[in-house]
Amino acid sequence: MIGRLRISGNYGRRATRDALRGAAIVWMAAFHFCFDLNVYGLLSPRQDFYADPFWTLQRTCIVSLFLFCAGLSQAVAFDQGQSWPRFRRRWVQIAGCALLVTLGSWWMFPRSLITFGVLHCIAVLVIVLRLTAGAGAWLWLLGLAALAVPWFVSDPWFDTRATNWIGLVTKKPITEDYVPLLPWLGVAWWGLAAGRWVLARRRGWLTGTLPRALRPLAALGRWSLTFYMLH
C-alpha cells in the first residue's frame, strides 16, 4: 500500500516493490508540479489537464502504478502473515491522510473538492485485498471483472456524492481527483495476483538487491505516504 511497510526476514529494504512505488512518487510529483504551474498561469501555453490525452494518460498510468503496488504490498503482507492489528494501524494512517486530502481540497478547490481520490480508494480496496488474498488464480479473473464491469454497467443512482465512490457513474463528478473502486480495484487485484505468483515462483524478483542507481527510488518508496502528503 502507499506508505512505509517495514520489511523483515528475507525481504530486503532494496526491494523491487519499493522502487516501483518510488518511481510512481517521482512521476506523480512531476505531474503535480506541472499542474500547479498551470493553475497559477506559469505554464505556457496553458494546458487542459482534464481533457488533453497527454495529461490524462499520464494520470491513468500513475494511478495504475500506485494501485498495482498496493496489491503487490498486500501480497507481501499476506506472505509474511501480517497481523490484523498491524494492518489496522496502517489502514488508520491511510484513511486519516485521505481525510486530510479532502479537507485540504475543500479549502483550495471548494467547488471541486476531493471526496474519493487515490488515498480514499486505497483505504477501501486494501480491506478487499486483505480479505481476498487467499483466492489464488481467481484473483486474475476478479481483476478482469472489476475492470470490465464499468464498461457495461452504469446508472444515475451512482452519480451522487454518496454513491459515486463505487464507480458505476453515468457522468464523472466535478472533483480534482476521482479514483472510484471500480475499475481500479481490478488493477490492485492484478497487483495482488502478480505478487502472489512472484513470491511463489520468482521470489528473487522482489527480494533481490537492486542496482545502486535504483536504490534512491526504493528509499523514497518506503516513505511514499509521507512524501505524498508533504508534496
What does this structure look like?
- With 231 residues, this protein is an all-alpha fold.
- It contains nine helices and no strands.
- It has helices at residues 16-39, 53-80, 84-108, 118-132, 138-152, 181-201, 204-207, 215-222, 224-230.
- The longest helix has 28 residues, at 53-80.
What is this entry, summarized?
The chain is mainly alpha-helical and 231 residues long. It has helices spanning 16-39, 53-80, 84-108, 118-132, 138-152, 181-201, 204-207, 215-222, 224-230.
Identify low-pLDDT runs: 1-14
Radius of gyration: 18 Å
- How would you classify the quaternary structure? single chain
- Helix residue percentage: 55-70%
Outline: globular
User: Could you give a short account of the major beta sheet?
Assistant: none
The total beta strand count reads 0
- Order of secondary-structure elements: HHHHHHHHH
Ends distance? 18 Å
Output mean pLDDT.
Answer: 88
Report the sheet-strand fraction.
under 5%
Number of helices: 9
Helix-and-strand structural type: mainly alpha
Notable characteristics:
single chain, 9 helices, 231 residues, disordered N terminus, mainly alpha
Topology:
Layout: H1 16-39, H2 53-80, H3 84-108, H4 118-132, H5 138-152, H6 181-201, H7 204-207, H8 215-222, H9 224-230
Helix pairs in contact: 1-2, 1-8, 2-4, 2-6, 3-4, 4-6, 5-6
